[in-house]
Amino acid sequence: MKSNWLAGLIVAASVSAAHAATFVSQTQEYSPPNDNFAQAQALPDSTYATMGNIYYATRELGEAKYATASLGRTVWYKFTATKTGRAVALLTTADMDTAPLQMQAFSGSAIASLTRLAKVQVAGTDAANSGSLAFSTVAGTTYYLQVDSAAQTYSLDGDFLIAIQQFGASGGLAALTYRPALIEDQSSDKFKVLVANGFKSKADLQSGISSIGAQLDVTSTATTFAAGQTGWFTVADKYGSTITGIASGNLQITAFSTATSAYMGIRAIPLKLFQRDYNYHPSLLVRFAKPV
User: What gap in Å lies between CA 200 and CA 208, rounded to an integer?
Assistant: First the structure.
């Protein structure tokens, strides 16, 4: 009888150990929907940013850290390559927060056996408040991005914008926008674009505006970009010349090799300049019935 009891205890212990080996930490009640690797949010190949945050996010068992001091509040994204070449991911806190965010790119399909392809840290003190990473892709393969934060002594600000784009083997200029490229004429309206040098070498970037350049100015936080460097390009309305209705053009950013001055590539971002005509858009008049 004693031996049967002992055998049953050993079997129960073995079952408990097996369950412990496959245990997955549970998501907190208020954590983001892409808190866990299995629920990674799909990112499209697009210049339009996806908004995210790491509030109440958790770390799973077996999950790789960016660094030992990483906070461990991770969220996950996935991207399926549309071609064999190079993908560039951009991450920014823009004007929202200044958290020292971290981003990693991985290949693989299981959280415990991922292979890190690239990583970048976005320092809160960085003037651009942004960063990018690039990695080689194979058409049809799904890759994963992890966003986390470094530990910090002040309160955590965890909002961010993220985007990813696909290029050929040589790379390209990646861009992130977070609103439609509409600028009101004769106003202080501005449109900002985050640009990353997704080529493999340093580039000089020249910017200009086609078709409606007489009505708009463009400035940038930098003109020479190391591989992976990001910067903001700001398009602003000029006072003086005016338009009628809506005018279209492009913000054109051209990359030249810093070493050889050879042309590397160009990125065009559509813009629309419009004139608000208050005569044709009168204020809405609302009447309320008076009680009798």
Answer: 23
Q: CA-to-CA distance for 158 and 172, rounded, in angstroms?
A: 28
Question: What is the C-alpha R_g of the chain?
Answer: 25
Rounded distance between C-alpha atoms, residue 231 and residue 203, angstroms:
13
Cα torsion for 234, 208, 230, 91, to the nearest 10°? 60
**Which two three-digit tokens encode residue 137?**
């892709």
Half-sphere exposure (CA, 13 Å, Cβ side) for 28?
12
DSSP character string of the chain: -HHHHHHHHHHHHHHHHHHHHT--PPPPTTS-TT-SGGGPEE--BSSBPEEEE-TT----TTPPPSSTTB----EEEEEE-SSSEEEEEEEE-TTT----EEEEEEESSSGGG-EEEEEEEE-TT-TT-EEEEEEEE-TT-EEEEEEEEB--SS----EEEEEEEEE-TT--EEEEBSS--EEETTS--EEEEEEEE-SSS-EEEEEEEESSTTTEEEEES-SEE-TT-EEEEEEEEPSS---SSEEEEEEEEEEEETTT--EEEEEEEEEEEE---TTSSPPPP---PPP-
Cα–Cα distance measured from residue 180 to residue 204, given in angstroms and rounded to the nearest whole number: 27
Whole-angstrom distance, CA of residue 90 vs CA of residue 67: 20
pLDDT means per 10 residues in the chain (292 residues)? 41 41 54 94 96 91 86 94 97 76 95 95 72 97 94 69 96 94 87 96 97 92 95 89 84 98 97 76 61 55
Is the Cβ–Cβ distance between 78 and 144 less than 8 Å? yes
Q: What is this structure's pTM?
A: 0.82
260: left (phi over 0), alpha (psi -120 to 50) or beta: alpha
